[in-house]
Amino acid sequence: MKFNCFLYISICFLSITTYAQETEKKNLDTSYWTNWNFDYQLNNLDSLFFEVNTRSSAFDSYIVDGLNINRAHIMTGYAHHLTEKLYLGASIRSVFEPDWNVWYWRLFLQHNGQIGDGLLDFQKRIQYEYITPFKQVDTPGTRDNYGRFGFWLLLGKDFNIGKPKFRTEFSYEFFINNGDDATDQRLVDLSRLRLDMYWYVSDRIRIGAFAMRNTEFYFAPATGPSYDANGELISEGKPERNLNRITPVYGFSFKYSIPHKEECNCPGEKRRKRK
Predict the structure, then answer these.
(1) pLDDT beyond 90 at 235
(2) Residue 125: other Cβ atoms inside 10 A
(3) Second-level CATH architecture of 31-212+248-258
(4) Which positions ≥6 away from 140 have C-beta within 8 Å?
(5) Interval 99-119: pLDDT, tens
(6) DSSP 3-state assignment of 186?
(7) Where in the chain are the domains?
(8) Out of 20, 65, 141, 168, which residue is the most buried by the measure of CB atoms under 10 Å away?
(9) CA angle in degrees (0–180, nearest 5) for 166-167-172
């Protein structure tokens, strides 16, 4: 209960502070993602997980030109089962961007609960990421290492339409800056509002589609007016302001899970009896 209250208070506080100042919203081109997730549950209920992600959108340069892929990552991690509903874990993510390879080192604590007497799954996660960029080519520009805290909330429900089984999920995630000099004027670094729909192909396989609003938060310094060669005004100057870069995202998800199997004396099972 205390964990839930802390998350609610944090979200209210961030909502007030994020939008208190004058804000410019800039809508970017649609991005198309694919997520490929694999996880394996161990006998002690701990989990190993692995993820591949690709992102395609209009961009100046790409890591895969033919597919317009401007970003991709691979991630591996481990979640330790602390209690029936609580997990402590860590992950490493390697992100590939044009000219850059960025590493994300993450620790997280996740609570998997329910609300409404089991009506909805309610998952909460608090995490800390440390981000280390490495330039792959000799071009202008630098990036500093920095850290950020993240909070994630999810409501989910399984349901049937006839015999097929489906699942819908609604989630919200945001990250708080911690030591990034380029964006230290904004409290929130990134937020993601997402809706997923899955079809259970089998007990182990889920495929789905999602829609997401991805918002990056920046501080934009004041700019003066700009003129063309004839002295005609091209654009007026702007004061110091908050700049929210909003990207609509649509994507495909694939999840493959290998659940833990209890030892038993079932016919055909070549498993040893518990002592």
Answers:
(1) no
(2) 19
(3) Beta Barrel (2.40)
(4) none
(5) 899 999 999 999 999 998 889
(6) coil
(7) 31-212+248-258
(8) 168
(9) 160
